[in-house]
Design goal:
It holds the Pfam family ABC_tran. The chain has a domain at 5-97 and 163-225: Rossmann fold (3-Layer(aba) Sandwich), CATH 3.40.50. The chain has 7 helices and 9 strands. It has helices spanning 49-57, 78-88, 104-114, 119-132, 148-160, 178-195, 206-209, and strands at residues 5-16, 23-34, 38-42, 64-68, 89-92, 166-170, 198-203, 214-219, 222-225. The strands form 2 sheets. A 6-stranded mixed beta sheet has the order 5-6-7-3-8-9, sandwiched between helices. A 3-stranded antiparallel beta sheet has the order 2-1-4, covered by helices on one side. Strand 1 and strand 2 (23-34) form a beta hairpin.
């Protein structure tokens, strides 16, 4: 660990369904992400990587154990807490999920607007984030007019616009060719370095995993940590 804890999982697990049809996606997991950590969560599809990241982001609730964010101040109301978490934790999904009727700048600034920023302020921050990942020239284009690699860079910019403390990237290169995926990882690493955010990337691609110094492995919903940073 490299600094202050941003998220801690304490025996956190996630089961879908009940009884004989129950599926354990993540068994009781203990792990911690600190400031400026760079972690690759490796494992095949279906091993529980995405569910683990969703638990860390607060997008899903654990069915056992708990996930805590130590920077969260007790006494903050539920609505304020949801907004604070949304601004402090950014998630890059496998699919960019851009809204077809909004241009690139509007897509990038939308989470800020939803969090209460003015449209003008959100646009300023969106344009800065797009410039940070090298696609400022696409600001006025619609999603259907850009490539898959460009769309994923826009998705990275959308997360970075809020300058989060923690970025969780869930198979960010999973739908890209090797060259484009490598460039997206370059952009992502440079951007989190610039804003000083921690980064956790889930991937089944060994080449992506090797870009980060710390490796965790998911197998059948169980997380295996490697304190020396290496893979088994």
């Amino acid at each position: 660990m490299t600094g202050r804890a941003l998220v801690i999982c304490r025996e956190a697990g996630r089961t879908y369904g009940r009884g004989p049809v129950a599926v354990v996606a993540v068994h009781g997991t203990n792990c911690q992400v600190d400031t400026r950590d760079r972690i690759a969560v490796m494992g095949p599809s279906g091993s529980g990587k995405s569910t683990l990241l969703h638990l860390m982001a607060g997008l899903e609730q654990p069915t056992s154990g708990e996930v805590v964010w130590p920077w969260y101040a007790d006494g903050v109301g539920p609505k304020a807490w949801v907004r604070a978490r949304a601004m402090a934790i950014g998630v890059v999904f496998q699919s960019p999920s851009l809204i077809a009727t909004l241009d690139v700048a509007e897509n990038t600034g939308l989470p800020l607007v939803l969090a209460g920023e003015s449209a003008d302020r959100a646009r300023v921050r969106a344009l800065a984030a797009l410039d940070r990942v090298g696609v400022a020239d696409l600001a006025g284009r619609l999603p259907d007019d850009i490539s898959g690699g460009q769309a994923q860079r826009v998705a990275v910019a959308r997360v970075l616009a809020s300058r989060p403390r923690l970025v969780l990237a869930d198979e960010p290169t999973g739908r890209l060719d090797r060259s484009t995926g490598r460039h997206v990882v370059d952009v992502l690493l440079a951007a989190v370095d610039e804003i000083g955010a921690a980064l956790v990337v889930s991937t089944h691609d060994q080449a992506v995993g090797e870009r980060l110094p710390t490796h965790w492995t998911m197998r059948d919903g169980r997380l295996h940590l490697h304190p020396d940073g290496g893979t088994p």
